[in-house]
Amino acid sequence: MTTDISQADGAASPADSGQQTPPFRYDADMAGRIERKWQDVWEQAETFHAPNPGEPGSERPKVYLMDMFPYPSGSGLHVGHPLGFIGTDVLGRYLRMTGHNVLHPMGFDAFGLPAEQYAVQTGTHPRATTEANIARYRAQLRQLGLAHDPRRSVATTDIEFYRWTQWIFREIFEAFYDTDAGRARPITELRAEFEAGTRAVPDGRAWSSLDEPARREVIDGHRLAYISEAPVNWCPGLGTVLANEEVTADGRSERGNYPVFRRSLKQWKMRITAYADRLADDLDRVDWPESVKAMQRNWIGRSEGAQVRFRTAGGAEIEVFTTRPDTLFGATYMVLAPEHPLVEKIAPTAWPDGVDERWTGGAATPSDAVAAYRTAAGRKSELDRQENKDKTGVFTGAYATNPVNGEQIPVFVADYVLMGYGTGAIMAVPAEDPRDWDFATAFGLPIIRTVDPGENWDGGAFTGVGPMINSANDEISLNGLGVTEAKRAIIDWLAARGAGDAVVQYKLRDWLFSRQRYWGEPFPIVWDEHGPIALPEDQLPVVLPDVDDYAPRAYDPADANTEPEPPLGRAVDWVSVELDLGEGPKTYRRETNTMPQWAGSCWYYLRYLDPENSDRFVSREAEKYWIGKDTARSAQDPGGVDLYVGGVEHAVLHLLYSRFWHKILFDLGHVSSEEPFHKLFNQGYIQAFAYTDTRGLYVPAEEVTEGEDGGFTWNGEPVTREYGKMGKSLKNVVTPDEMCDRYGADTFRLYEMYTGPMEASRPWSTRDVVGPQRFLQRVWRNLVDENSGEIRVSDDEPDETTLRALHKAIAGVHQDLPALHYNTAAAKLIELNNHLTKSGGQVSRPVAESLVLMLAPLAPHIAEELWQKLGHDETLAYAPFPVADERYLVADTVEYPIQVNGKVRSRITVAADAGQDEVKAAALADEKIVAELGGAEPRKVIVVPGRLVNVVK
RNA sequence: GCCCUCGUAGCCCAACGGCAGAGGCAGGCCCCUUAAAAGGGUCACAGUGUGGGUUCGAGUCCCACCGAGGGCACCA
Predict the structure, then answer these.
(1) How far is A681 from A677, CA to CA, in rounded Å?
(2) Which residue, A164, A561, A625, A695, has most beta carbons within 10 Å?
(3) What is the CATH number of the domain that holds A421?
(4) Domain boundary pick from A889, A914, A933
(5) The domain containing residue A779 runs over which residues?
(6) Looking at the domain assignment, is residue A149 inside a domain?
């Protein structure tokens, strides 16, 4: 079937290597020839095509392995990118050899800013750039020998792919969240309920009294994808709005680092908040790193508490959210956020008599004070608010009544209360909240302790637990209760009086889903005079039109008072469209926003399962087979990809969004699984040193030398070393292409897997790559004559020590590979090979074959070549992985170290099957131990079978 | 400020609570070589960030501190 190119071409190769190098040495050239050969063989033989259910091979237990797909950037891959890909590949190859049907696909997250920005600069269509980059990535990945199923490679920019992205959007648009049922349902069912009168219109109007536009407005207000006029993150520098997740803590864009402003704009949103509970709760059902779960929980930010209503003297009601309703007796003032709508309504015309001067901000009237404060707060950037935690604020002039004790408490406006969280208003309890304590101290407000901090407490606000005090009125007393009971009691009391209810609050906001960009999925939406309408399924895909100018209108990055203007708006012929959507031909206006980059990655793992399907985004059978719930795993198993490997940087964004979409698809009955990713693994990063000269400019890292004093120089000049990312601008990029040229892909793979455990970040060190290369060279030399290229194994039985070394290695590797401990697996193979090298002579065939098979997941090309040389016609990709024979794992005799008080003092050798008493007796009879004890009886003797003996004096 | 990781030889990293070293890099010496090395062999190098505690026994478990990396940050 295949030719043996290492021999055919081998004879020609020595001319270009050193004169004395044997002609069949495993060097970079040889490796390159072997690797290209096997990559072609695998492709032609369709070795890694994974069968779908019903196809031959699908009866084997399935495993779905996936990497987070890359964005195909113009600069290509550097050595850091494939770390996870190789790790997944090694596991996949191991699992194939242990009888599994392994699906390991790869695709491209190809919509995004860089291609668009390049298009803006050069006029090149983003599709041209994107496809060229994808081709480059494919070639780079292919040369690494990754066992992907090539039929299943998808790109989010493929029209056949984004057709289904639009279809899913459509499903989301055509659904609402039924809070009673706790799941999404089709919007048609909502309409039917309104029509039948089984569901009340939220504002109490009768459905029959509404005209069609009004009805549509009610319906649109329930959709999971909806338009809202709400404060959003507007980034004039990018000319687009951004999701909360895309804005950094200091109020700038994650991409480009431009200022971001809060502006009220009409935008598309997705109702992810409806799923807040399920997104938080179901984290308990997936096998993810605790750190990632913690980040998601933190982002969702569920907190349980109460809403409490305070009546003001003017009759207005201020509703607050608090997690500590138990401390209500200690509420001595209230605070509204500067943007709170009640601020101006409650402010009276004049200050009350004797108002504290600190409260007025020096203004003549409450309205002046409030207006001035609001203006000042609005001018402050997020960064200012964050960095300056000194409490500022001003009295509104109004008082509200504390419902538990009738106290009149002053209402302030202060920017330490945020409009975006809870109700934008708080009851302030300085005794139990440090922020309120600071404010109360600054403004001279009373502080009443309601939780007993204990005698030794001399600090400020007490947030710990303790018995309640000072908390009683005529009807209820919380005094003496613990926090939990006090909360329950006061909520019941408030609820009975109509002054409050138990509520749950979330930090999570609805997901801003529209962007003013060209290079993204168009919405499958058209507008008529009343609002948005989803295009019927049969009119998908909505293909991106060609435009002359790819740029959104960008502005002075600092000018907040600008409006987003999407590039698709300029495709006037496309925007205006005549359609018959059931009311006869009519002109509609297309939606000109595009979807954010996250859209495609929300569901790509489903498309891999059935990439050619033109009837459905994925067939039910394929979805069930590959990611369906596995009750054998656990009763509550939510299903999902068996292993998803990628960087921790997606902990919140991508992983939360795709969970959200998956749950909608589940609710609507389109998938059987409830979670997209069953097990998540975060690989570490390959990092690199970078060097700057005295002017602070980066110099080529490759050319820097280390002096004996530990200092670094470049061209004789001293340079300073930094450690961090690999990047073009840092002049420290190393590419896999270079490594394949200089050492071969197998060496490169082994190096990446060997330098540390998968989850660990570590520095790149080109210098160290020779280690794995030497190892492969030695394996080759042990099995192949470097002068003739002939295999040289013996048919003699292996000796006892070799068998022991072999089976010890098998047992170890068998354990390490599925646990992703590739570094220790490789070490065990090196150890075994070192043993073979030292033994000298020819390696016996069964030992050679086992070694080659065990090497195959890590270094597949050289393993295939050796396997073929050993006389096998078939690929080893599905050959059975060696199994250790217990006989060679147990020794006849065991050496026990003998400790006296935990320190090793002697050693004895006893038969492996010796009982504990025998071992103990032998230990105590040892002359060194007898001397140590000096005739005294040991207090205690601990025998750990097979391990050691510890004598306690 | 809070939360999560992680500190073992010059470097990268191993070590079910049981003899601190599996492996690699770099280094020394020897062999091969006219010479060289990405060839072969061999040798040395740490007591596990610091201080306590639990234990017969701690790199491993607990507490505090120091250092590095990451996440969150006026979220009521």
Answers:
(1) 10
(2) A164
(3) 3.90.740.10
(4) A889
(5) 1-45+743-889
(6) no
Who's near A507: CB < 8 A, 6+ residues apart? A299, A300, A301, A421
Q: Which of A321, A308, A333, A307 is nearest to A448 (CA)?
A: A333
Which nucleotide across the nucleic acid strands is nearest to A756, CA versus C1'? Answer: B13
Q: Where are the beta strands (DSSP E) in A674-752?
A: 680-682, 686-692, 698-699, 705-706, 712-714, 717-724
In whole angstroms, B71 C1' to A842 CA is 55
Structural contact between residues A392 and A374, judged by C-beta atoms closer than 8 angstroms: no
Kindly report, residue by residue over A389-428, the tens digit of the pLDDT: 678 899 999 999 999 999 999 999 998 888 878 888 999 9
Task: Select from A468, A502, A536 the last residue of a domain.
Answer: A502
What is the C-alpha separation between A785 and A805, in angstroms, rounded? 23
For residue A515, being part of any structural domain is answered with no
**Which residues have CB under 8 Å from A522's CB, separation 6+?**
A166, A542, A543, A544, A568, A590, A591, A594, A595
Give percent of chain A with pLDDT exceeding 70. 96
Which tokens is A915 given? 């009982």
Residue A788 carries which side chain, given as an amino acid letter?
A: S
Residue with minimal CA–C1' distance to B71 is A295
Smallest CA–C1' distance to B12, residue: A755
Q: A18 CA, B36 C1': separation in Å?
A: 10
- Terminal alpha carbon distance of chain A: 71
Look at residue A10 in the predicted model and tell me its pLDDT.
37
Give the SS3 label for residue A708. Answer: coil
Largest CA distance in chain A: 109
pLDDT in tens, A814-837: 999 999 999 999 999 999 999 998
pLDDT digits (tens, 9 = 90+) for A76-114: 899 989 999 999 999 999 999 999 999 999 999 999 888
A69: Cβ contacts below 8 Å, ≥ 6 apart: A106, A107, A108, A109, A601, A604
Q: How many CB atoms lie within 10 A of CB A255?
A: 17
Same domain, A898 and A805: no
Q: What amino acid occupies position A89?
A: D
C-alpha to C-alpha distance for A411 and A348, rounded to whole angstroms = 12
Q: How far is CA A550 from CA A278, A383, A752, A937, in A?
A: 39, 32, 40, 89
How sure is the predictor about A179, in pLDDT bands with cuts at 50, 70 and 90?
Answer: very high
Confidence of residue A641 (pLDDT cuts 50, 70, 90): very high
Better-predicted residue by pLDDT, A621 or A795: A621
**A877 and A918 share one domain:** no
Given this model, what pLDDT does residue A382 score?
A: 56
Q: What is the pLDDT of residues A280-332, one digit of tens each?
A: 999 989 999 888 888 898 889 888 889 999 998 888 899 999 989 999 999 99
A36 in helix, strand or coil?
A: helix
ipTM of the shown complex: 0.93
Measuring from the CA of residue A939 to each C1', which nucleotide is nearest?
B56
Q: Which amino acid is at A340?
A: H
Do A325 and A436 lie in one domain? The reply is yes
Q: Helix, strand, or coil here: A925?
A: helix
Question: Other C-beta atoms within 10 Å of A206: how many?
Answer: 10
Task: Single out the residue of A573, A527, A576, A523 nearest to residue A547, CA to CA.
Answer: A573
Instruction: Name the pLDDT band for A16 (thresholds 50, 70, 90).
Output: very low
Which amino acid appears at position A24 of this protein?
A: F
What is the distance between the alpha carbons of residues A465 and A179, in angstroms, rounded to a whole number?
A: 34
Strands A525-528 and A175-178: unpaired
Chain B: bases < 7 Å from a protein Cβ: 3-5, 11-16, 18-20, 22-26, 33-42, 56-58, 69-76
**Domain at A923, CATH number:** 3.10.20.590
